[in-house]
Automatic annotation (TrEMBL):
This is UDP-glucose 4-epimerase. The keyword NAD applies. Its EC number is 5.1.3.2. GO terms for biological process: galactose metabolic process. Pathway: Carbohydrate metabolism; galactose metabolism.
Length: 344
């Protein structure tokens, strides 16, 4: 079954890879993006890789209902929505919480209202594993208590709760995917993660150091209660995550409403910052200099998924490991030393 899918934030890191997967499956897409932290070049390359022109772009802010109305009226009816658009930097959310509540929660509220108006009630939401807060038991499963410790995670959980209320009140089908830590890039090296300024995430920081854009990596804290003192995360190849979205949307469209799912998307393997540095060095032969600095506000010691529900309900499991994450992420950085702003 081929569908028409609306994707918010489709030019971003995860969004662009998901657009490629969906186009290759034969779906048609309408993407809404304001390019606040992304580039139109990503979508151009997605279409080039997919050899498809079945992607329409509506440029604008998610919080503007006129923009979303224009997207819904741009072609045949939309079968489902994948909602990526939002702000995602933990430290920034601590410094500017009002902006995060406005963009992440209010933007999602406007989207849901416009979907309701157009009779489209099938939604895959980009949530986060940070809603679990600072748990003491691992791996993390979906039935565990949520206790977000920073505004980024708090806004994501609030959206989950709003969508849950919609499912209980009417004929909605919603899946909230709690991502762990997506890294890597498409193996072609044509699309990848392109943060503006100094990266907030570990992996692009490592690749920029390897490329000589940064002199050394900053490791935020080595006094956590973990084996080597650095934070542990469940790193996930972005292509595995992109494929999870296609599988999830297909699953929802085959269910009778109301349907509500909350699913962890991770590998089940926890890697420390030093583990990732070592893995990158082994995969590329490049030494990564680093210095340990103070912890960042909002960071937690450890996050590691229990991915059993994703396999049981969706039939999805991560297929790529750290070697592929490092290889593909480095291929992207080498081919695009300044990201999408690189010269042809």
């Amino acid at each position: 079954m081929t569908c028409r899918i609306l994707i918010t934030g489709g030019a971003g890191f995860i969004g662009s890879h998901t657009c490629l997967v969906l186009l290759e499956q034969g779906h048609s897409l309408v993407v809404v993006d304001n390019f606040d932290n992304s580039s139109p070049e990503a979508l151009r390359r997605v279409q080039e890789l997919a050899a498809s022109d079945a992607l329409q772009l509506v440029e604008g802010d998610l919080r503007n209902p006129d923009v979303l109305d224009r997207a819904f009226r741009s072609g045949r009816p939309v079968d489902g929505v994948i909602h990526f658009a939002g702000l995602k930097a933990v430290g920034e959310s601590v410094a500017d919480p009002l902006r995060y509540w406005d963009v992440n929660l209010n933007g999602s509220r406007v989207l849901a209202a416009v979907m309701e108006r157009h009779g489209c009630r099938t939604l895959v939401f980009s949530s986060t594993s940070t809603v679990y807060g600072e748990p003491e038991q691992f791996p993390l499963h979906e039935g565990m208590a949520t206790a977000p410790v920073h505004p980024y995670a708090q806004t994501k959980l609030a959206v989950e709760q709003m969508l849950g209320a919609l499912c209980r009140s009417g004929s909605w089908r919603v899946a909230c995917l709690r991502y762990f830590n997506p890294v890597g890039a498409h193996p072609s090296g044509r699309i990848g993660e392109d943060p503006l300024g100094i990266p907030n995430n570990l992996f692009p920081f490592i690749t920029q150091v390897a490329a000589g854009r940064r002199d050394k990596l900053r490791v935020f804290g080595q006094d956590y209660p973990t084996p080597d003192g650095t934070g542990i995360r469940d790193y996930l190849h972005v292509m595995d995550l992109a494929e999870a979205h296609g599988v999830t949307l297909t699953h929802l469209l085959n269910q009778e409403p109301p349907t509500q799912l909350t699913v962890n998307i991770g590998t089940g393997t926890g890697l420390s910052v030093l583990d990732v540095i070592k893995g990158f060095e082994q995969a590329t032969g490049i030494t990564i200099p680093y210095e340990v600095v103070a912890r960042r506000p909002g960071d937690v010691p450890r996050l590691q998924a229990c991915p059993r529900q994703a396999e049981a309900v969706l039939g999805w499991t991560a297929r790529r490991g750290l070697v592929e994450m490092c290889r593909d992420g480095w291929a992207w950085q080498q081919a695009n030393p300044m990201g999408y702003r690189s010269a042809p």
